[in-house]
Every structure is written in C-alpha cells, then in structure tokens.
Amino acid sequence: MIAKPKLGQNFLNDAQAIERIANSLGDLTGRTVVEIGPGRGAITGALVSRAAHVIAVELDDELAPRLRADYPPERITVFHQDVLGFDFAAAAERAGTRLPVVGNLPYGITSQIVLKLAASAASLDRAVLMVQREVAERICAAPGSRDYGLLSVTAQIFGPVTQLFTLPPSSFTPPPDVHSTVFRWRFEPRFQELAVEEVSFLRLVRQCFAQKRKTLANNLRAAGFAPEAVQAALEQATVAPQARAEALSIESFACLWQALKAEEAASSKDMVPDFASD
User: H/E/C letters for each residue in 155-206?
Assistant: First the structure.
C-alpha cells in the first residue's frame, strides 16, 4: 500500500525499534492498550502478542478494515476515526482501568494529539510516543534550555517525560525528511501537588509564553494584568522582573499563579483579570 502524505504516513519498518517501543510500555499482561495510528500494523502485532486487548484508532479508509481482517475481534477493536475525536474516558471505563497508549504520531498534528492526551490524563496510565526529534526535544526540555517552552510545561505538568531513543529516516517507508524520537510519558498530573487550578494555570502559562522575546512582565501586562499586580506578584514569587518565561520551572509558574491569585483577591478594583474567564 502506498503511503498517503496528507495523513502523515511514514510506516515503521525497523523490527528492533518495534520491539523496543513495545517493551517500553512495560508489562501489558491482562491489559488493554490503545494504539494511535497503527497504519499497516507494524507495532500492532507486537502489542497483540503482549496485551489482552488492543484498541486501534486508525483514520485511513483502507487500513482500518485491513487491521480488522488481520486480527481476531477478541484481540483487537478498530475505531475508524480521527484520534482527536476519540473518547479515551469511555475506553478506560470499558476496560475498568487507566490505559497505556502507544503511537507513531503524524508530524502535522503531533501537538494537537499531545494536548488531547493531556486532557485525557485521568483515563491514561502512560504513553510511549514517536514524534519528530525536534518536537520530542521541546516536550522533554528543561527550564532555561533553548527548547523549553509552552509545550514543555503543558506536557510536564501532566507527568514526567523521558526521551528513550532516536530513529533515522531509513527506519521508515517512505523515509521522512527528519529523525524521529521515541519518548515515554507517565500521566501523574501535578495540579493538586502544586496547589493550582488546572484551567487557569494553563491559561496563565500560555499568556506567559505569548511573545517569546518579551519579558514575563511584559507578557503579563499585555494579557491585561495591571502593572502593579504584576510587579507585586513577581516579587512574591521571587521571580526577577526581567525574567522570561523560558527561565521558569513549573514550580515557579505555580508560585506566580498563586501570587497573582492573591493579588486578585486583594484587589477591590479588578486590577487583575478574572482567572475564571478567557
């Protein structure tokens, strides 16, 4: 079958990499596992041999029925749909437990899928994902590094991420123009630990990274926070006035969120935007 570029299809052909990916999920005995975009089923076979059941989410009109024909229905359920619309919560409820996830993600919608998985974190246990190397570096980046940004914080607030290994273009058919990196993501959301509210915290992080060349203070003022509130919150959170968002750890963002909430509560003139609204 010919790959369809518009679906971001680059089929994995490296047998050793397939085994490494499946093994990276850990023990799947008795488990139900979700595979995103199984394609021709390169990883699917390794999952079927390890897990009690595989849920395959495949958009391609030709590949979805082919997967149903290749494996018995008691071992695999194929959802012919876009993963962005897949209901992970319902799948986890049917399985009776949080689900492991694996996938070779289409390059064009990698960030959207990562955000979808983050939003479904309560239903997921862990994920082993293959993405473009540069995207994996952004997801796994540490504060202060060149690659650290909004995607780093958004992913890592939902749990620790670890780069596992990188594959060359020759590991795929057709070969892409980039290298691909496999990383593992354990879903352990930190909102309660850091004493922040999920929606407003993530909104604040987006506001802080809105203009990467601007200082944190300038980005917050541009988002509508009063200059006095910004200055007071930065001091309370012990963040330097000229700091940029990429210098802050997740813990520092949490301190800043708490400080701005305190400023909001202390203000009688609505000098700080309402955290409950966009």
Answer: HHCCCCEEEEEEECHHHEECCCCCCEEEEEEECCCCCCCCCCCHHHHHHHHH
C-beta separation of 212 from 244 below 8 A: yes
Find the angle CA(180)-CA(143)-CA(107) to the nearest 5 degrees. Answer: 25
pLDDT, residue 107, reads 86
* 74: DSSP letter: T
- 5-186 to CATH, choices 3.40.50.740, 3.40.1190.20, 3.40.50.150, 3.40.50.300: 3.40.50.150
> How confident is the model over 34-45, as pLDDT tens digits?
999 999 999 999
Residues (pLDDT < 50) of the chain are 1-8, 271
Q: Please report the pLDDT score of residue 278 as a whole number.
A: 53
User: What superfamily in CATH does domain 198-266 come from?
Assistant: rRNA adenine dimethylase, C-terminal domain (1.10.8.100)
pTM of the model: 0.90
